[in-house]
Amino acid sequence: MKSTVTLSELLEQAPKVIRRAEKDGSVAVSRRGRTVAFVVSRERMEAILETVEILADTKLMKSIRDYESGAVKPNRFQPDEV
């Protein structure tokens, strides 16, 4: 099965399309040659939501930028502290 299906194919083969999305992360759905929707696996959707939450956290994003620029070094933890 391809990574894009038509709306008609989705309606006729929903279980197959969902299995493909579970396996590959997502399947695009097109109507009249234009992508109009996506069937997204739970795992992919959870990853998207986690990314959005991280991006929305201004303190966390500042920490990440500071670390990437070398402005701060990571703290070292002892095994019993984790």
Write out key terms for the chains shown:
alpha+beta, 82 residues, three-stranded mixed sheet, 54% helix, single chain
Lay out the secondary structure.
Layout: E1 4-6, H1 7-12, H2 14-24, E2 26-31, E3 34-40, H3 42-56, H4 58-69
Parallel strand pairs: 1-2
Antiparallel strand pairs: 2-3
Mind explaining what this structure looks like?
This protein has 82 residues and is α+β, with helices and mostly antiparallel strands. It has two domains: 4-40; 43-71, no CATH class. The protein contains four helices and three strands. The chain has a three-stranded mixed sheet. The chain is elongated and about 55 Å long. The N and C termini lie far apart (44 Å).
The share of residues in helices is: 40-55%
Oligomeric state: single chain
Number of structural units classed as domains: 2
Order of helices and strands: EHHEEHH
The whole-angstrom Rg is 20 Å
The biggest sheet, with number of strands, parallel, antiparallel or mixed sense and barrel status, is: 3 strands, mixed
Strand content: 15-25%
Q: Order of strands across the widest beta sheet?
A: 1-2-3
Query: Alpha-carbon distance between the termini?
Result: 44 Å
How many H/I helical runs? 4
**Form type:** elongated
* Low-pLDDT windows of residues: none
Q: Please state the average pLDDT score.
A: 92
The helix-and-strand class reads alpha+beta
Task: Write a compact overview of the structure shown.
By secondary structure, the protein is an alpha+beta fold.
